[in-house]
Write a structure and sequence with these properties.
Elements (H helix, E strand, L loop, with lengths): L19 E8 L7 H11 L3 E5 L3 H14 L2 E5 L7 E5 L13 E3 L2 E3 L7 E6 L2 E9 L6 H20 L3 E7 L7 H8 L3 E2 H5 L12 H6 L4 E5 L3 E8 L10 E7 L1
Parallel strand pairs: 1-2, 8-9
Antiparallel strand pairs: 1-13, 2-4, 3-4, 5-6, 7-8, 9-11, 10-11, 12-13
Helix pairs in contact: 3-4
Amino acid sequence: LPLLGMGRGAAVSPSGNAPSLTVMTVNVMYGRVRDADLLAEIDRHAPDVVIVQEYTPAVHMRIRDAMAARLPHSSIETRDDAYGMALFSKLPFIETPVSYPSFPTDGGAFQPTEPQIRAVVRVGNREVVVQGVHTLPAISPSYLAEQRELCRALAAYALIEPRNLVLAGDFNHTPASMPAAWLRDAGLVDTHAVAGTGRGLTWPAEGLLQRLAGFRLDQVLISEGLSCGWCRVGNDVGSDHRPVIVRIVLR
């Protein structure tokens, strides 16, 4: 099953001095994360970009200064529900980040109602688009329909974006799902499938359910022209999700 994620144009990166970008994605469970543990994970992996889901005003007030000291460039959309998002970066943005990007579809365009922050940074001499993702969980027919609509739109966007593209976040589906297949068919590669170890489970973060029937909901996907040096699931930070950290190399 993991081999299905290999797609076209990406592979495990050879060692060398090629430009690279380290990306972390983490869902902080309505801001209930343990701040010190989250910051310790960031310090341990030294990501260039961090995408945070379920980013509330309360957690922003608690960690904004510490995050700014580590990753001074940011785009913030706090919400009191489960759909706030933040994107922090060591690298300056070369375009103004977009919180609610419009995605192409066969019928025109799809406009998400939850933040899906998109930023562009320069790595080496190339532009890399980092697209934050947080789809609705498939807990009702309407939520499932919107999740699938967003994933179709992300796949359509991947097909037309000429720059290197990274999708990172809480997809709320597993790599075996139909939406994951649409993203693979668009040429996006699951970094865990090519450079991760073990099952890569991210939800729930701990407990018997995690060991027996956990899911890999948090993922980082990359487009043609990028390869993956390594992909790791981080430590428990007090959320119901574990972070994912990926080193992406420009080929």
